[in-house]
Task: inverse folding
């Protein structure tokens, strides 16, 4: 048995890098220090895995050779007028780079899953900027931590023990050195351990953020409650914010996906910006997939835009609402799709799924997904961080490199190789044409 | 492959060549004595030939540059670049995407560009982007001036151990030189504060910026690093700051050696007199006078160019101040135990007397520093203007007439508060070659760059201008045009620009420095750090280290 | 009963997907409507019984479950192909559909079947193709 140390976790945006994985005969037999979610991923990554390239045939799918599947995927892209290349958050930056080149080559749209998660936060930053910092800032300095519309106890399980409430930092050594505040529509496991919990009415985040900005500026309220929260509690939180030495606001999809969306985030940024006139305050989104941050970063440095990048004019364009995956699918504007390491059929509105189901679709993914049931061709791939190594970006933009510690099943190449192959084939097809 | 650049009018100051007509022979990426008759010939008759440009301070890659890209979609919209058979698409303007950065530098005849501010924890990101910048050779400077571990060593007076730590870090993150930004001030910024002078104590650490600068200067010398400490001093961007700037240069005077031991960067932002914005004046000449009297200092300009810019520095408190001053959008990005960073878009107006004074400061510096080997052309891209404005700056340096055209249009108050109109000097082509390639290459310790002698890297720019016919003083527009678009550019012996267009875009190298230190000292530093690494960082020691093979084309330079 | 629907991730959903999207564990973890106990009592339903949830954009049958993070009047369906039958397609120019805060009607649906993933996807394709 081999024990691999300092393994990076390829589950959520925390990208914990202290895991120990036991491997015996190319089989993962144990994982230490991982949370419940990561444990599930590592232990099941080798199971229930259909490693066959598949193509749609009468009434179902047939098993084909890898080469035939790659040819089919290339043909789908080469023949499309306006394809969507979607996913990218559960793979390596190396694969994302090839994805961008491929999208540019076929004049399609590149979009990553941030488009339906934290993309609106990025839109807000385009409007107003963002005071942020790495996770270590919260650990070493923050005496006030706010979780807003996120639930680390369910989705980022080690966040509080590695980065916030229960860590030992240079200037804060224990839980009682910090105040924890939770703002959520529901009482959550996280909120039960908080020093202050504000239960907010669904969809009223913008109102509460605006009220907090008022309270921070010592303005009077002429009402008893805002967004279902009594004014006294709002003033209490405002006082905690102003009087802390170093505050950090973490926010989740509860803020990005509810009513005002990007305007919620802009309001949160404005609040944090105001607070910097009185104390030190930073903020950070709780990014979901382990490399969704990398998908945004690579797209930014190669194209200038973080997601929803349209190459149909030959140069990068960005206009969410127009060039974003959900809108393109709902309106039926794209005529083919390549889906890499994600599952839009599980995560897009039904109207989008129906249109996706009726265009040619190629899927590259280690596992069978809902989207692969809609696909014309499905190409299996190796797991980044388990079966091959690649660069990933933690939620705070810290880049790390995953490693390979088991062999992938036969036919399962790293997706970066699958994509290079498809790119090569697309170029050949275009030359012939 | 062999190449012969024939009959060009060559400026190669490191080899004493000043406008002579000669051939440059190239084989296997290097300049050689001669080539065979089968060599490809580039007819450079009556065209100006220089070594490839070398830029020692331009923010082209990494976390804060990308933060700038995120913040500036409105900037990208006005300058898209479409894909061509030889180039990738992208966006330009002040924060260009990586491919566009490489192409646009190459088209100006630049072949080496250094990214000057990298947090160690984010160095992998920087290298990721540098790898994606085509054509250019690159490197990055890690930020040490506010590093908590270093400050603790200095507080305890353990400079030998601090040197071991710096050496280990440089090697671990594949950095090139020691960068210092607002020493001590960024640590104070962790609590929303700043330090405003060389002798103000850094909160919680009981040491002063003076001690930080002096210690790192000593360490840089101990490690025999090829480039001196690269410093952005305290009080940047504040009226009256020229005194801090001169004090900072002077604080390492006793450490002087054969070469400069301190490089002050984008000094335009550090050369202001007056007590406030109302009484602000240019003190470029004062700083130049100090530089003229002291050989231990070199500087670069950070020349301001009117128009659109994106300010981005590791100087978090400065960027916050700029946000408050302008009300523009503001990004701040702090990195756990190391540094901060900030980004604020800015538009420099010729009609604004503060901006106009800033414009004169850089030119005063360039014209009043007598030794061109110690003053280099930069715009601190994209802080005082984008690198694509270099040809404009070159024209200002070479032509009093070009300067006067601007001087006549700036507010009278700005003219009065500056010495620029009294400076008659006009740079020669040879001096331009010094401040844009030969001098910078020498300052960086790149022995095969910045010249065209036998053995040099075959990085060559051929500009569409006959320096024997054009009088740059009068025909400055021709000069500007020529430096903006080289006819041919050769990188490592390969023709990358032909007839002004990108012909091919090979991958350049990334330099990193292996400091001159005994292996057992380095091992001890590593062991000490490993033992306490988890107390400071949120990643594991082993995952922090960037192995050489993580870089696409690394090139190590052994110090000493 | 009128309620506000929130969709989102949960531990069970995240673990379920690692067993494979076609696994029973995945379906069991996401084809559920988590409700406050008082709301379940009002509807006279027990955990495990089927409910039909209808939004302005569609309806779906899922199993009722007692929420561990309850709030009266609020129901939670983990993200997945079932929840997405209810999600609003409009992004308001942001790219992000409305996943949270949708007004829905929840009613008991005794005897109705919770569709399988294969059935949902076949329906999306407009045919009855089998995997």
Result:
């Amino acid at each position: 048995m081999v024990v691999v140390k300092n393994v990076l976790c390829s589950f959520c945006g925390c990208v914990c890098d202290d895991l120990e994985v036991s491997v015996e005969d190319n089989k993962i037999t144990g994982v230490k220090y991982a949370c419940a979610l990561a444990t599930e991923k590592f232990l099941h990554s080798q199971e229930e895995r259909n490693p066959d390239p598949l193509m749609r045939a009468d009434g179902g799918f047939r098993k084909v050779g890898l080469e035939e599947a790659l040819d089919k995927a290339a043909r789908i892209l080469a023949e499309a007028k306006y394809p969507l290349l979607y996913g990218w958050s559960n793979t390596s930056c190396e694969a994302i780079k090839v994805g961008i080149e491929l999208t540019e080559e076929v004049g399609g749209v590149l979009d990553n899953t941030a488009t339906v998660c934290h993309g609106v936060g990025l839109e807000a930053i385009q409007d107003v900027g963002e005071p942020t910092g790495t996770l270590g800032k919260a650990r070493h300095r923050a005496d006030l931590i706010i979780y807003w519309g996120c639930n680390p106890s369910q989705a980022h399980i080690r966040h509080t023990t590695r980065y916030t409430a229960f860590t030992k930092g240079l200037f804060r050594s224990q839980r009682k050195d910090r105040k924890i505040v939770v703002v959520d529509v529901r009482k959550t496991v996280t909120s039960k351990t908080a020093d202050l919990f504000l239960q907010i009415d669904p969809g009223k985040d913008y109102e509460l953020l605006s009220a907090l900005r008022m309270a921070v500026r010592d303005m009077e309220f002429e009402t008893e409650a805002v967004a279902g929260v009594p004014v006294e509690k709002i003033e209490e939180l405002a006082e905690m914010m102003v009087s802390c030495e170093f505050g950090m606001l973490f926010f989740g999809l509860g803020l990005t996906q509810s009513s005002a969306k990007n305007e919620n985030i802009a309001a949160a940024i404005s609040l944090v910006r105001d607070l910097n006139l009185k104390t030190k305050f930073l903020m950070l989104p709780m990014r979901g997939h382990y490399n969704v941050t990398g998908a945004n970063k690579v797209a930014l440095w190669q194209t200038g835009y973080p997601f929803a990048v349209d190459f149909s004019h030959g140069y990068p364009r960005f206009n969410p609402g127009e060039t974003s995956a959900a809108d393109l699918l709902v309106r039926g504007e794209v005529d083919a799709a390549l889906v890499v390491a994600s599952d839009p059929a599980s995560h897009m509105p039904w109207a989008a799924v129906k249109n996706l189901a009726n265009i040619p679709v190629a899927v590259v993914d280690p596992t069978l997904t809902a989207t692969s049931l809609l696909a014309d061709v499905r190409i299996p791939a190796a797991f980044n961080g388990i079966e091959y190594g690649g660069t990933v970006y933690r939620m705070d933009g810290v880049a790390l490199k995953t490693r390979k510690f088991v062999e992938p099943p036969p036919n399962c190449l790293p997706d970066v190789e699958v994509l290079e192959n498809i790119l090569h084939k697309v170029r050949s097809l275009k030359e012939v044409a | 492959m062999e190449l012969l650049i024939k009959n060009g009018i060559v400026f190669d100051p490191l080899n004493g060549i000043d406008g002579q007509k000669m051939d440059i022979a190239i084989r296997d990426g290097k300049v050689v004595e001669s080539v065979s008759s089968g060599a490809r010939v580039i007819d450079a008759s009556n065209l100006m030939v220089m070594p490839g440009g070398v830029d020692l301070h331009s923010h082209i890659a990494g976390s804060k540059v990308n933060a700038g890209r995120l913040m500036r979609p409105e900037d990208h919209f006005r300058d898209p670049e479409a894909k061509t058979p030889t180039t990738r698409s992208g966006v330009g303007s002040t924060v260009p995407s990586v491919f566009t950065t490489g192409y646009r530098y190459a088209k100006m005849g630049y072949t080496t560009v250094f990214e000057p501010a990298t947090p160690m924890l984010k160095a992998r990101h920087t290298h990721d982007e540098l790898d994606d910048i085509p054509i250019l050779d690159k490197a990055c400077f890690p930020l040490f001036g506010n590093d908590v571990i270093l400050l603790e060593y200095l507080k305890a007076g353990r400079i030998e151990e601090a040197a071991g730590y710096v050496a280990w870090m440089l090697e671990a993150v594949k950095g090139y030189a020691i960068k210092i930004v607002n020493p001590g001030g960024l640590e104070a910024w962790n609590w929303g504060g700043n330090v405003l002078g060389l002798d103000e104590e850094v909160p919680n650490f009981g040491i002063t910026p003076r001690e930080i600068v002096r210690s790192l200067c000593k360490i840089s010398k101990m490690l025999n690093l090829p480039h001196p400490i690269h410093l952005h001093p305290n009080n940047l961007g504040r009226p009256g700051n020229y005194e801090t700037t001169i004090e900072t240069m002077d604080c390492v005077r006793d450490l002087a050696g054969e070469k400069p031991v301190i490089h002050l960067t984008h000094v335009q932002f550090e050369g202001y007199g007056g007590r406030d914005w109302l009484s602000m004046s240019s003190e470029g000449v004062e700083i130049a006078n100090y530089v003229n009297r002291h050989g231990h200092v070199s500087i670069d300009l950070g020349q301001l160019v009117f128009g659109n810019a994106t300010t981005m520095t590791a100087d978090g408190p400065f960027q916050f101040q700029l946000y408050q001053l302008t009300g523009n959008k503001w990004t701040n990005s702090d990195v756990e135990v190391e540094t901060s960073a900030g980004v604020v878009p800015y538009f420099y107006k010729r009609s604004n007397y503060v901006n106009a004074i800033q414009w004169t400061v850089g030119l005063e510096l360039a014209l009043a520093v007598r030794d061109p080997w110690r003053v280099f052309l930069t715009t601190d891209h994209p802080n005082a203007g984008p690198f694509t404005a270099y040809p404009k700056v070159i024209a200002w340096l070479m032509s009093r007439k070009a300067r006067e055209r601007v001087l006549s249009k700036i507010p009278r108050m700005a003219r009065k508060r500056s010495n620029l109109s009294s400076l008659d000097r006009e740079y020669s082509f040879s001096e331009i070659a010094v401040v844009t390639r030969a001098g910078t290459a020498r300052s960086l310790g790149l022995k095969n760059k910045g010249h065209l002698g036998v053995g040099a890297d075959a990085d060559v720019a051929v500009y569409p201008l006959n320096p024997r016919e054009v009088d740059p003083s009068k025909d400055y527009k021709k000069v500007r045009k020529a430096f903006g678009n080289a006819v041919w550019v050769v990188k490592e012996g390969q023709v990358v620009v032909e007839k002004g267009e990108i012909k091919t875009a090979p991958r350049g190298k990334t330099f990193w420095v292996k400091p001159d230190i005994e292996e057992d000292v380095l091992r001890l530093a590593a062991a000490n750090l490993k033992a306490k690494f988890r107390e400071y960082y949120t990643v594991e020691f082993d995952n922090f280290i960037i192995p050489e093979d993580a870089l696409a084309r690394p090139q190590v330079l052994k110090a000493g | 009963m009128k309620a506000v629907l929130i969709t989102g991730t949960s531990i069970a959903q995240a673990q379920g997907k690692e067993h494979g999207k076609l696994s029973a564990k995945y379906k069991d973890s996401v084809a559920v409507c988590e409700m406050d106990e008082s709301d379940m009592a009002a509807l006279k339903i027990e955990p495990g019984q089927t409910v039909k949830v209808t939004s302005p954009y569609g309806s779906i049958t899922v199993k009722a479950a007692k929420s561990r993070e309850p709030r009266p009047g609020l129901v939670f369906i983990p993200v997945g192909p079932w929840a997405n039958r209810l999600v609003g397609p409009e992004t308001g120019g942001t790219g992000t559909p409305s996943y949270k805060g949708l007004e829905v009607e929840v009613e008991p649906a005794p005897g109705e079947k919770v569709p399988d993933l294969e059935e949902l996807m076949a329906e999306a394709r407009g045919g009855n193709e089998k995997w």
